[in-house]
Amino acid sequence: MDQLNAWFTQLLAGNAIFTANTLGFYWNGLVTTVQLVFLCLLLGIVLAVPLAIGRGSKRWWIKWPIYAYTYVFRGTPLLIQLYLVYYGVVFFNGIQDTIFWEVFKDAFYPALMAFTLNTAAYTTEIFRGAIKNTAKGEIEAARAYGMSKGLMMRRIILPSAFRRALPAYGNEVIFMLHASAVASVVTIMDLTGAAYYVYARFYAPFPAFIFVALIYLCLTFSIMFVFRRLEKRLLAHLRPRGA
Amino acid sequence: MIDLQGYGPRLLEGALVTVELAVLSLILAVVLGLLTASAKLSRNRLIHGIGTLYTTLVRGVPDLVLMMLLFYGGQIGINMLTDQLYYAFDIDIFINVDAFVAGVITIGLIFGAYMGETFRGAFQSVEEGQMEAARAYGMSPLLAFRRVRFPLMMRHALPGIGNNWMVLLKTTALVSIIGLTDMVRVAAEATKATHEPFLFMLPVAGIYLLIASLSEWGFAKLSKRYSTGFGEASEWTN
């Protein structure tokens, strides 16, 4: 450990900007960004699955509200949604006196809420498309086995739809990682927030932002790698034989 | 009627800035995209490599980070350049980076990479037989490109261009963070002053939806036009 520490100090010697202190900022930013993105994606999927099923319903009073929700959230910038949730909460009369203030006084939760609503809208449409493209034969086979609608959804349609949605969902994950950079505008110290702090403190835009760009690049490539592997495993049955 | 507390005219001015910014960056992005597509389709390995590096880097980094890098770094970079010019050649100039120009260049650069991918795929989908036919008619390379390859390519590229345009439109909101007075910035300022977020943010969201719906309609029309001779314009209508 001492050796590592010495090596690290040597590496940072003669470097005014990337001190242990600022690297700590970047590290905390990385943790915040990953937490924010991971949580909103997880919550987004939980919301999107029932919404995607409902979006294909024959009843207009289920179908149309979901369509309106995805249309509005996909048609407006995430920044506006973030401002709406953040200021909507902060400027809500009397919220400071309620128990909710404990949760919402930290900008993390309003941001998480806005991101979740945003990604859920995109994910709903991705799942919706995948469900719609289920092969007729699979549904006929399930019916021939006498499966009920719920069982068919659970055992046949959803598993095959999730596989087909995988490439598009991978893009959505990367999109969300990049979109999360706007969290820095509502006082959250995510990766971009940390980079901005370092820029403002040292007035050194190139090191501050290029360094953070490289971190984002690494994250993007890792996500792409994971999804490639997943696709290879889960979509193996769709590849030509002998390949 | 909604009372915008005197912010109405400024919101409209901001909306105009948003539209101008989006249209100008779209033009830049299309030009850059065509160049990138040709670079990526080039047989020259160096040019191909540069094209790939550009699209990979830009698509791997958040728009906001690139925007901050180019906007905050741009002024310092240009100052360093003009300083060098002064020392070396005794030329004394000062270039001030305008937030609007920086915004157009940044968004154009970002979406040039996405457009490049769209155009590359579209160029590859044009049947070679069509170009052979054009050559057999004795068309010059330029004429063959203008009359045959480009219109055929556009049919495949339009859905992608439409998607990119929708994303680009929403990305323009980010310029409000680096100090450009578009409608999002006006709304944010008004919100902070009056503590009424919904009063200002909802109309702005409505304008974005309006522009998005109008362009969806416009792209459907264009798609029909470029699909002449290919039956239904089914690609765009989903």
Automatic annotation (TrEMBL), chain A:
Membrane topology listed for this record: Multi-pass membrane protein
Subcellular location, record wording: Cell inner membrane; Cell membrane
Domain of life: Bacteria
UniProt family annotation: Belongs to the binding-protein-dependent transport system permease family. HisMQ subfamily.
Domain ABC transmembrane type-1: residue ranges: 30-227
Transmembrane segments: 7-27, 33-54, 66-87, 107-127, 173-199, 205-227
InterPro entries in the record: AA_ABC_transptr_permease_3TM, ArtM/GltK/GlnP/TcyL/YhdX-like, MetI-like, MetI-like_sf
Entries under Pfam families matching the protein: BPD_transp_1
Major localization listed first in the record, in broad terms: membrane
Protein keywords: Amino-acid transport, Cell inner membrane, Cell membrane, Membrane, Transmembrane, Transmembrane helix, Transport
Protein name: Arginine ABC transporter permease protein ArtM
